[in-house]
Write a structure and sequence with these properties.
Radius of gyration: 21 Å
Order of helices and strands: HHHHHHHHHHHHHHHHHHHH
CATH superfamily: MFS general substrate transporter like domains
Structural class: mainly alpha
CATH architecture: Up-down Bundle
Number of domains: 1
Distance between the termini: 33 Å
CATH class: Mainly Alpha
Helix content: over 70%
Shape: globular
CATH topology: Growth Hormone, Chain: A
């Protein structure tokens, strides 16, 4: 049975090509927004309610620590999801992988909203939470790579950075939605929040999933994927390609180890700084400042709203000046801001916290994160691209996923002094910056030409 899909009719005019590129970008954005909404509400709930509901303890921080451990479990499932869906996406097509990941995430998140608590069913409650978290992690492991490729591989010439920012914009929209919804339910009295209010963000996700599935089902395969499949089928028929090189992961590890390691380092720097902003500042503010729990949530929501614009601008800037300079800009800004973040939280000033979060998201995360879809995609050949960028994003996630747990443990051990967290974050940003220096500049490379479908972009 052949795994080669029937080639779609290529677009005949510039107008058709532009329309297809925009449809792909919208499908990437909407689906990613929904999936990251699901993921972010778990992180927020870990800080606000999961400790008390699923890991009750006399020490609130101990409960939060246990919830962060479960949060980290999902990150260990992500590389496996990246391998499985990367293989599906590289061998069978991007569309099927993206539809499946969206369904997995949506169903797992909806079921979380129906879970009984430890007070109701005892130890079964945290066990069920862990299992659903693993399903979430498995799904998201294959989501980002496919969403990035659909946007990048359909992008017009010279616009891969701008179009590739679509899944990152979806990430920001998901964060806005997640923090906005939890910001509202966090305003409820504790009795209502902990009894039924926390369930609302999880249950309403099922409606969003239905919308996302409708949009993604209308996708077609990208020209780059179709060209690569045709080239692979020809090579196989002529006996030119060894069987092992037809397996994306094996081919990746044999021929493209260097770009894989570089992309992993780029992701590590961004991921550690990103989760300082996403989860750790909320823990620090809740336990060591007088800020209300909803203040940091609203500050994150506003900052993510600004990032919706800046992710696109950073992607577009990378089309003009290159991927590396934009990433290095973000690494520098993030490193400089890491320590002042906590000084500003200590002021208990909501306007200052909003300003700090906006700058950190829009320039720091904006440059580091906004450029990744195009930058990562251009490092790998079409036949291994889904697997390559998925592994590059998800293997470091095992470290990133434990970071909220480790950072909170360090905070407890130092009595609230964030210095160890600051130093480790800056060191990881340094790793990312060094990998950016080592990487090739790829923003002018061709990734769609069938003649180069078997080779990393820019090679000869």
């Amino acid at each position: 049975m052949s795994t080669t899909p029937a080639p779609a009719r290529p677009p005949q005019t510039d107008a058709e090509r532009t329309a297809l590129a925009r449809r792909a970008a919208v499908a990437s954005l909407v689906g990613t927004a929904i999936e990251w909404y699901d993921y972010f509400i778990f992180g927020t709930a870990s800080v606000l309610v999961f400790g008390a509901l699923f890991f009750p303890s006399e020490d609130p921080l101990a409960g939060t620590l246990a919830a962060f451990a479960v949060f980290g479990v999902g990150f260990f499932a992500r590389p496996l999801g990246g391998i499985v869906f990367g293989h599906i996406g590289d061998r069978l097509g991007r569309k099927g992988a993206l539809v499946t990941t969206l369904m997995m995430m949506g169903i797992a998140t909806f079921l979380m909203g129906l879970l009984p608590t430890t007070a109701q069913v005892g130890v079964l409650a945290p066990i069920l939470l862990v299992l659903l978290r693993i399903v979430q992690g498995f799904g998201v492991g294959g989501e980002w790579g496919g969403a990035a490729l659909v946007a990048v591989e359909y992008a017009p010439e010279g616009r891969r950075g701008a179009y590739g920012s679509a899944p990152q914009i979806g990430n920001a929209i998901g964060l806005v939605a997640a923090t906005g919804v939890f910001g509202l339910v966090a305003m409820l009295p504790d009795e209502q929040l902990f009894s039924w209010g926390w369930r609302i963000p999880f249950l309403i996700s099922i409606v969003l999933v239905a919308v996302g599935l409708f949009i993604r089902m209308r996708l077609t395969e990208t020209p780059a994927f179709v060209a690569a499949q045709e080239a692979a089928a020809t090579a196989k028929a002529e006996g030119a390609a060894p069987v092992e090189e037809q397996i994306p992961l094996r081919r990746l590890l044999r021929l493209e180890r260097r770009p894989l390691l570089i992309a992993m380092g780029l992701r590590l720097g961004e991921g550690v700084f990103g989760y300082v902003l996403l989860t750790f500042v909320l823990t620090y503010a809740a336990n060591y400042t007088d800020l209300d729990r909803s203040d940091v949530l609203w500050a994150s929501c506003i900052a993510a709203g600004v990032a919706i614009v800046t992710y696109y601008l950073m992607g577009r800037l990378s089309d003009r000046i290159g991927r590396r300079p934009v990433y290095l800009l973000g690494a520098g800004v993030a490193a400089v801001m890491t320590w002042p973040i906590f000084l500003i939280l200590d002021t208990n000033s909501f306007p200052l916290v909003v300003l700090m979060m906006v700058v950190a998201y829009s320039i720091g995360i904006g440059a580091l994160y906004g450029v990744q879809p195009a930058m990562f995609s251009e490092l790998f050949s079409t036949r291994t691209r889904y697997t390559g960028i998925s592994m590059a994003a998800q293997l470091p996630s095992m470290v990133v996923g434990l970071w909220p747990y480790v950072a909170t443990s360090l905070l407890i051990s130092t009595g609230g002094d964030p210095w160890p967290v600051v130093l480790i974050t800056i060191a990881m940003l340094g790793v990312g910056a060094w990998c950016a220096v080592l990487s090739r500049e790829t923003h002018r490379d061709d990734i769609v030409d069938p003649a180069t479908a078997d080779r990393p972009a820019g090679t000869s």
